[in-house]
Amino acid sequence: MSVSRRSFLGWGGAAVATAVLAGCGSNWFSAGSGTGSHGALLASRIPLPDPFRVPLPIPPNLEPRDGTIEIAARRSAVEILPGRTTEILGYEGAFPGPTIRARSGEELQVRLQNDSEIDTVLHLHGGKTPAEHDGYPTDLLVPGAERTYVYPLEQRAAPLWYHDHAMDFTGPNVYAGLAGMAIVGSDDEDALGLPTGDRDLPLVIADRSFDDDGAFMYPLADPSRARPGVTMRYHGGVLGDCVLVNGAPWPVLEVDAARYRFRILNASNARRFQLSLDHGVAFTQVGTDLGLLERPVARTSIAMAGAERADVVIDFSGVPVGTRVTMTNTLEHGGPGQVMQFHVVRAAASDDTRVPEVLSTIEELDRAAVDVTRDLHFSLGATGSGHHGRADWTVNGLTFHDGDVFTSRLGTLERWRLSSDVHHPVHAHLLGFQVAAPGGDGLAWKDTIDLLPGSGAEVLVPIEGYTGRYVLHCHNLEHEDMMMMVNFSVVA
Ligand code: C2O
Ligand code: CU
Ligand code: CU
To answer: How do the domains of the chain map onto residue ranges?
Structure first.
């Protein structure tokens, strides 16, 4: 803890940020202003590296042995900025943690050892999980303790992820590194012929800011953690100025001139991305948060809020060897506007992969069969009783402490009408949302819906899985920690 303690010191105000920015004038970019994301930019106090120099790290795959995976949450010192050390708190001491590779319909047990000095909770995001194993925010695993989470995985193949979910402190804990992907595969999916092996890679995108000693910087209001929340300026969200992909700043992946499948996750606390490629290369989106689309969709850009996943194929086969294809974030200029680069270094010896016309079947839910309609409004609360005397973030004016906001019955179909004041990526545990596919052709399953300012969305929600108490929250982690999280219960 000693190494990072100072990086967690609260430091307030725009004046400081401006001074620091001026001191780093030799950076190759000027920091963006957070366009398209809700939050405030936290400027690094150390010059950031030039982009597209560091190779993209590939987190190791972790496959269950006898249905079990063992991981430890622990601190470690890693090199993120070339020549500097950053202390992280990650699963297996890595950020992102290892990529869990599990199978649909096969129970997975994850034994988590807490080798850190903070309380943590493990949540499998997108998992259809019994309540006692879902990572309820106050179900804390104290330092030195160990527990086994059981995931039946009675659900479609999908790019899930796992992360800390500790009450009031998910923001700082995930920022410190407690996040990784958990890709659930299936035989049906394997039979499609999509790229596999070292041409099926996770891309975990997350923004971070660095202190002058290379430490991660996070503006906790109270570094002793006696009270939660971030300093006033970051009440809307913490936006970093350095984009990490798989834990490396603006990295480069050397690719063959062939098809690749990328499971893209926006693991940022608050930053939204709108990804696009140059040199005329497009994405073929094959899946969303909760699995494959019905048909592939060609897309020139993909918007992703925190916690959203996009399963895409990128075909480099028509790209001349030597070309550098850059992935940018068109919501921003400068550092946060750059993501990573693909360097096409060799012709493919062979590529027998394909993207079939039909990827999966999604049974369309019948609107006429909706049992319950709920209106859920995500906004800043009316009172000034929250953090810093400001209003808390709320759902229908309520917060975590107000008990169950609603009760749902197993086997029924609900329609949720979601609405928001500012950007809020809305996420429910246990349940999936049926929505129109991106591009509008067919259907998709999602667990996180990106609400734009002053906008709304309507989703169909089958109540399936397990009974018990779950949470519904905004996945802007600063909003979540500052109370935009409510309880709901599922009953038989
Ligand atoms: Cu990504 Cu409540 O979680
Ligand atoms: Cu979740
Ligand atoms: Cu929010």
So the answer is: 14-36+362-491, 61-190, 197-347
Q: How far apart are CA 116 and CA 71, in angstroms?
A: 12
Peptide bond into 320 cis (omega under 30): no
Q: Which helix (H) or strand (E) holds 302?
A: strand 301-304
Q: Are 148 and 109 in contact (CB under 8 A)?
A: yes
Give me the residues of the chain with pLDDT under 50, please.
Answer: 1-35
The dihedral of CA 200, 201, 205, 206: what is its sign?
positive
SS3 category, 491: strand
Distance 488 CA to ligand 1 centre (A): 14
Judge if the beta carbon of residue 473 lies within 6 A of ligand 1: yes
SS3 480: helix
Report the phi/psi class of residue 267: left, alpha or beta, with left for phi > 0 and alpha for psi in -120 to 50.
Answer: alpha
Write out pLDDT tens, residues 431-460.
999 999 998 789 999 999 999 999 999 999
CA 198 to each of CA 12, 203, 254: distance values in angstroms, whole numbers, following the listed order: 44, 13, 12
**Nearest ligand (C-alpha, residue 483):** 3
Of all protein residues, the one whose alpha carbon is nearest to atom 1 of ligand 1 is 125
From start to end of 17-67, where are the E strands?
40-41, 61-62
User: 252: Cβ below 6 Å to ligand 1?
Assistant: no
Asked if 91 and 72 count as a contact pair (C-beta separation under 8 A), the reply is yes
Residue nearest to atom 3 of ligand 1 (CA): 125
Pairing relation of β-strands 158-164 and 179-185? antiparallel
**Smallest-distance ligand from the CA of 126:** 2
Q: Identify whether the C-beta of residue 102 lies closer than 8 Å to the C-beta of residue 144.
A: no
Q: What is the pTM of this model?
A: 0.92
End-to-end CA gap in the chain: 45
Amino acid at 287: G
Q: What confidence score (pLDDT) does residue 439 get?
A: 83
Length of the chain: 492
Whether 156 lines ligand 1, by a CB cut-off of 6 Å, is no
User: Could you give the C-alpha distances from 150 to 31, 104, 129, 132, 491, in angstroms and in order?
Assistant: 43, 14, 8, 9, 20
CATH number of 14-36+362-491, picked from 2.60.40.420, 1.10.3470.10, 3.50.50.60, 1.10.10.10 = 2.60.40.420
CATH 1.25.40.10 is right for the domain spanning 61-190: no
Starting at the edge strand found earlier in the chain, the sheet holding 158-164 runs 61-62, 99-103, 179-185, 158-164, 122-125
Gap between the Cα atoms of 291 and 156, Å rounded: 6
CA 476 to centroid of ligand 1, rounded, Å: 10
SS3 189: helix
How is residue 135 written in tokens?
A: 């990572």
At residue 15, the pLDDT reads 27
The highest-level CATH class for domain 197-347 is mainly beta
